[in-house]
Amino acid sequence: MMLSRKEIIDKLTLELKPHKYIHAMWEMGSASFGRLDQWSDIDLMLVCDDDRVEDTLGATERSLIALSDLDIKYRLPEPAWHGHAQVFWRLKNASPFLFFDLVVMKRSSKDKFLQYDIHGEPMVHFDKIGVVKNEPVDKIVFAKNLKGRLESMKTTFELFQVLVTKELNRGNDIHAYSFYVAYTFRPLVMVLRMKYNAIHFDFFTAYLYHELPEDVAHRLRSLYLLRDTDEIKKAHEEAQKWFRKTVKELDKRPSLFP
Question: Which of the residues in the chain have pLDDT under 70?
Fold first, then answer.
């Protein structure tokens, strides 16, 4: 019998909550946006005393091993980009979709991914010190950063389009497509997200079907799922026009983040 999500979470809650040095546990990702389904992994966050990160990781792993042998374990090299400890586990006796993505944060850490506007409302399993609370986004600072990002993209977008064209001219379709995704399609998605849901402007394709209008998502799909060089050329031309048109629309707005 394969372990269920509830069985795993219940076991961790039971085992980790009594530890005095572990203060809070919550889920993010699909859980925080109310989109859990049978393919969702477990995005788990733990807060502990500053000097007990390794103890917290050890306690978590022991709790998992009590349920099932480990199939895969990977710890992100540190310092990680977010400044926290992060470990991935996959259990032999659970669906491969139900792998663990655990982030352990020191109690003193400033950024705990608790901006609900950006990361969704966490699914809290225990919070002994009241750490899990919304940290509202500073809209003035966010809008300023967003504007700066848009201004830089205007330049870099125009600069790098020749990378796609030159590889098409050389007949290097794979290289051309990789440049197209990186320097044409990705910036296009970013400005469209600025237009329709600026708070997630840098989420690329995550939640795209939920957060962009259906016709926009459908059109993006046609610009991404390409079969050959001719389609790359056509998509490249269309994506450039759409990017420039969207940028002009954004420039007319008094603020990118209402």
Answer: 258
Distance set, CA 149 to CA 111, 246, 250 (Å): 21, 14, 12
CB 25 within 8 A of CB 13: yes
Residue 220 lies in a domain: yes
For residue 6, give the 3-state DSSP assignment: helix
Strand stretches in the chain, DSSP E: 22-27, 42-48, 70-75, 85-91, 100-106, 123-127
56 within 8 A of 45, measured Cβ to Cβ: no
Confirm if 107 and 46 have CB atoms less than 8 A apart: no
The Cα–Cα gap between 29 and 121 comes to: 9
Domain boundary among 92, 127, 162: 127
Which of 127, 148, 167 marks a domain boundary?
127
Domain that residue 203 falls in? 139-251
- Is the whole-model pTM more than 0.85? yes
How many CB atoms within 10 Å of residue 170? 10
Residues 197 and 217 in one domain: yes
Q: Residue 2 carries which DSSP code? A: P
Largest CA distance in the chain: 64
Q: Total domain count for the chain?
A: 2
Residue 169 neighbours by CB distance under 10 Å: 10
Query: What's the rounded Cα separation, in Å, for the pair 122 and 28?
Result: 5
Closest CA to 45 of 91, 99, 1, 84: 84
Closest CA to 223 of 211, 210, 208, 201: 208
How do residues 183-211 score in pLDDT, each as one tens digit? 999 999 999 999 999 999 999 999 999 99
Estimate the share of the chain in helix, then strand, then coil, as percent rounded to the nearest 5.
55, 15, 30
